[in-house]
Amino acid sequence: MMPPKNTSKNTIARRELLVVSSAAVVASMIAMPGVASAQEASLPPLPYPFDALEPVIDAQTMEIHHDRHHQGYVDKLNAALKGHSDLQAKPLSKLIAELDQVPESIRTTVRNNGGGHLNHTLFWQMMTPGGGKQNRGEVGKAIDQAFGSFDEFKTQFATAATGQFGSGWGWLVLDGGKMAIVGTPNQDNPVTMGKVPLLGIDVWEHAYYLKYLNKRADYVNAWFDVVNWDFVNEMYKNAKA
Ligand code: MN3
Fold first, then answer.
1. Dist. CA 145 → ligand 1 center (Å)
2. Rounded mean pLDDT of 75-85?
3. What confidence category does residue 41 fall into, taking pLDDT thresholds of 50, 70 and 90?
4. Is 197 helix (H, G, I), strand (E, B) or coil?
5. What is the 216 CA–ligand 1 centroid distance (Å)?
6. In terms of domains, do 174 and 226 share one?
7. 68 C-alpha to center of ligand 1: Å?
8. 93 near 25, Cβ under 8 Å?
9. What is the Å distance from ligand 1's center to 195 Cα?
10. Does residue 82 surpass a pLDDT of 50?
11. Which of 4, 88, 208, 236 could covalently link to 212 via disulfide, CB atoms 3.0 to 4.6 Å apart?
């Protein structure tokens, strides 16, 4: 699927990006695990074999998703940032948190492809074989407190992810230190809105269609079996630091 063209709808959404993210959010994102600077962005290796998340996510979907889709975001980001050494020097998370500082001529490209690179770099780490059985630790306690129970969190998260219209993501975020669930369209990352992502699910059709066809809700429900709670705890610790 191609990134969206610069429609008038995008112009409205872009205005929201001009809200300057708080310095605290940006600072916490710099230390985001596994996210390097945007300079000569490269495809991070998948931390497990393509078939490791079977039967939740099939090997062919993982291979196409990682080797083609994510590679595409990396290549287009590099092309857009060519000659912009100031932007290349920024950590990727900071670049996306400060989209308002990206020249308008490349902002939509950076938003879509830099966002795609950031989102997928996190997404591969947010999953691991059998992850759903891990102890949810500190972040689990905070989730229970914020939502009343883990089941209630799961229900709200799944509702947001399933209900995201068209391509996008469902997220658990820290918003001003409070846990919240948000959806983002296309490859937008919550950090652009001043929120720190803790856990995110890709609900673009390329993430699930081969196995689940149009049944996005089945994919979202099954996906909880591979959530890497150790990594979510790392994200949470970074965000709180
Ligand atoms: Mn994807």
1. 30
2. 95
3. confident
4. strand
5. 14
6. yes
7. 10
8. no
9. 20
10. yes
11. 208
Domain enclosing residue 230, as ranges: 131-240
* Distance between Cα 124 and ligand 1 center (Å): 10
Specify whether 73 is located in the same domain as 163: no
Q: Is 4 part of a structural domain of the chain?
A: no
The pLDDT tens digits of the residues spanning 58-68 come to 999 999 999 99
* CATH (domain of 24): 1.10.287.990
Ligand 1 centre from 201 Cα, in Å?
A: 9
- Residue 210 has a pLDDT of 96
- 199 alpha carbon – ligand 1 mean position (Å): 14
Q: Are residues 77 and 143 in the same domain?
A: no
Instruction: Calculate how far, in angstroms, residue 33's C-alpha sits from the geometric centre of ligand 1.
Output: 19
Q: Give 62 Cα–ligand 1 centroid separation in angstroms.
A: 10
What is the number of structural domains in the chain?
2
Question: The pTM is what?
Answer: 0.86
Q: What is the mean pLDDT of the chain?
A: 88
Would residue 143 count as lying in a domain?
yes
Pure H helices in the chain: 8-17, 23-30, 59-63, 71-81, 85-88, 92-97, 104-109, 115-125, 137-147, 150-163, 209-212, 216-223, 229-240
Distance 202 CA to ligand 1 centre (A): 6
For the chain, state the CA radius of gyration.
17
Cβ atoms of 25 and 174 within 8 Å: the answer is no
The pLDDT score that the predictor gives to residue 6 is 41
Q: In the predicted model, is pLDDT for residue 3 greater than 50?
A: no
